[in-house]
Amino acid sequence: MIKIFTTIFLLIIGSTGFAIADTDYQLHAELIAKNTYVFIGKKEDFSMVNGGNILNTAFIVTNEGVVLIDSGPSYQYALQAKAAINEITDKPVIKIFITHSHPDHFLGNQVFPDASIYALPTTIRELKTNAESFLDNVYRLADYWMAGTEVSINSILPLNSTSELIGEHSLRYLFLKGHTAADLAILDETTGVLFTGDLVFHNRAATTPHANIEAWLLSLDKLEQIRFNLLVPGHGEVTGNISPIKQTREYLTWLDVTIKRSVMDGLSMNEVINLPVPEQFQNLAVLKSEFMRSVIHRYPIYEKTLFEQIE
Question: How far apart are CA 255 and CA 205, in angstroms?
Fold first, then answer.
């Protein structure tokens, strides 16, 4: 309902001569390896200022067509990404891989009606349950940036194969979990580029609303064993080493231990939120807001577990 009113409002102000708010994402396709490009997002929270341009989406230009990894947070974002791709190649987007079910990663699907869209089976189930509520929520967060954005998930196909040759690029699919109930990572064995989705954050505090931290840490262990040349995290800078994996693991471990111990020690939620943060994490982007959200999400989970153990 919110998205309908927002779209109508934009049409009204446009027809009355007022300037429609700027929704230029200023996307720049950064070449990181042969045929491989990334749109680097801002290390910020989803907001009216950035329109949800907070993630990294990527694409690979193959002989058969373009492979897109995540379609982005809105209709307008995906339109601009498509235009940027068309400036580089005249090949169409033939495949899209949705790494997980969070809204900044799949709400651009409608811009690519001719592409085959794939996600892990559990991700598809999560989208069928949560996609509409996710969309309403991001309309509240980003308002006019979301105009025209609709949920487009009915055509998503389950990804069941673990590897595939597309053009000259050999892709290996890693079925992991932890950030959500299902997280897809992709290794392009041809270029050595590893796309981790939101299993890895780089110089940005991790988001944990649907996390299973124990499973997430196991997934990070698996990612750390993979030989790669470049790592593209879900959020943050591209790098050629495993430091973002280690950084994400250390932050999650500290977060998990801190909240669990605080619950056991009888600290209130407000007291936990105001605990000092170790120096090694103080330079992480959006640390304050993400730590607060993690406490709000996870404190009740640990509290319930503790009470069950006592009973």
Answer: 10
